[in-house]
Amino acid sequence: MLDNKTLLSAEVTMVTAFQDADPMGVVYHGNYFRFFEEARRVMMDKIGYGYREMQASGYVWPIIDTRVKYVKPIPFNHEIRVVATLTEWENRLRVDYVIYDAETGGRMTKAHTMQVAVTIDGGEMCFVSPTAFTRKLEAWYDSQA
């Protein structure tokens, strides 16, 4: 079992764009997933298991469930900090997200996504995370000790 004291996480800072906003100048709720995805991508790159490595290992990881709590509206042209943290990994991936106002540090959104490994060749869902992923995660944890 991996040590849970230091969870794998990553953060990105970005400025919301005009095209992210609705006519009221507030970021459209569906665009939050692009922010989550960028933080998740950076997090997975930290362990060397980005999209190309996933594909090369024979798996895709579709999202099967999401939950978002919109705490405070995010206006366009606003700097935000998005933090992604891997909180489950043995049977599925659960990634927790928090979007903060980059200036004040106030929480604006919290969310999570669930993903499962699916074999590329057969389209079979895995009930345990494949060793191609867990070895990468274990190596990252070992490097943190």
Describe the structure.
The mean pLDDT is 94. This protein has three helices and seven strands, in the order βααββββββα. Helices cover 24% and strands 32% of the residues. The protein has 145 residues and is of the alpha+beta class. The protein has one domain: Thiol Ester Dehydrase, Chain A, CATH 3.10.129. The radius of gyration is 16 Å and the shape is globular. Strands 1-4-5-6-3 form a five-stranded antiparallel sheet. Strands 2-7 form a two-stranded antiparallel sheet. The two termini are 14 Å apart. Keywords: Hydrolase. InterPro entries: 4-hydroxybenzoyl-CoA_TE, HotDog_dom_sf. It comes from Photobacterium aquae.
Summarize the structure.
This protein is α+β, with helices and mostly antiparallel strands and 145 residues long. Helix content is 24%, strand content 32%.
